[in-house]
Amino acid sequence: MFGGSGAVFIVAVILTVSLALALFVIFYKLVAISQAQSQSITFLDRFWESKRLDDIFRVAEGLKYSPLAAMFRAGYIELSKVKKGQVQNESGTMHEKMDGLENIERALARAKVSETTKLENLLPFLATVGSAAPFVGLFGTVWGIMEAFTKIQEAGKADLASVAGPIGEALIATAAALAAAIPAVVAYNYFNRRVKVLGAEMQTFASDYLNIVKRHFF
Among residues 135, 139, 159, 137, which one has the least CA distance to residue 148? Predict the structure, then answer.
């Protein structure tokens, strides 16, 4: 099908590979983000039901895909360090307590950044495919049309036999570009929205967790 033009063949291969990779990324992110969301719901239920942080920590250790559980683990570990230091310093001064609370807040912030980075992993690839594929396809289309005009010039006349092949290659390049770009753009917007929702949930959880720690330990 692409024997007449090596450039259009290369464009078609690039777009086909891009489509295959984009579909793989879409499936992978769908599973990963769905797991993160479902486990976060489970964690929040246990978090508000339980009255002991150590019990919640044991639950959080089993929810490896939940960003909220990861934030809780980071905050709990830092809280344990702070409380241990306060015991060694005979409960510490007010300034030391405020420093301890800031350390917990920073631990939560670091965990939030880390989990957000994980959630956003591979999304730039979908954005790149969605934005670049139409231009790659346009290049193949233009090249195919140039081939058609070249064959018309060589033949000295414009008949169907001389232009059908190159025009067909050009249209296939356009179709391949759309096939790669459309699902990538739709998936990117969809996943980006879900990541923003999880990000808002992480921010809310960080505030709630800090309020609980401040009320009971500081």
Answer: 159
What sign results for the dihedral spanned by CA atoms 91, 95, 101, 104? negative
CB 74 within 8 A of CB 107: yes
Q: Name residues whose C-beta falls within 8 Å of residue 16's C-beta, 6 or more positions apart in sequence.
A: 176, 180
Sequence-separated (6 or more) residues with CB below 8 Å from residue 184:
18, 22, 26, 126, 127, 129, 130, 133
Identify which of 141, 186, 162, 167 has the alpha carbon closest to the alpha carbon of residue 12: 141
Q: Is 121 left (phi over 0), alpha (psi -120 to 50) or beta?
A: beta
171-203: pLDDT as tens digits: 888 899 999 999 999 999 999 999 999 999 999
Q: What one-letter code names the amino acid at 128?
A: T
Q: At what angle do helices 160-217 and 94-120 cross, to 10 degrees?
A: 160
Angle at 115 between CA 114 and CA 117, to 5 degrees: 65
Sign of CA dihedral 46, 47, 52, 56: positive
Q: What is the pLDDT of residue 84?
A: 79
Q: Token pair for residue 65?
A: 């895909």
What's the pTM value of the predicted model, to 2 decimals? 0.85
Query: Cα angle vertex 61, ends 55, 65, to 5°?
Result: 130
Closest Cα partner for 33 from 121, 114, 119?
Answer: 119
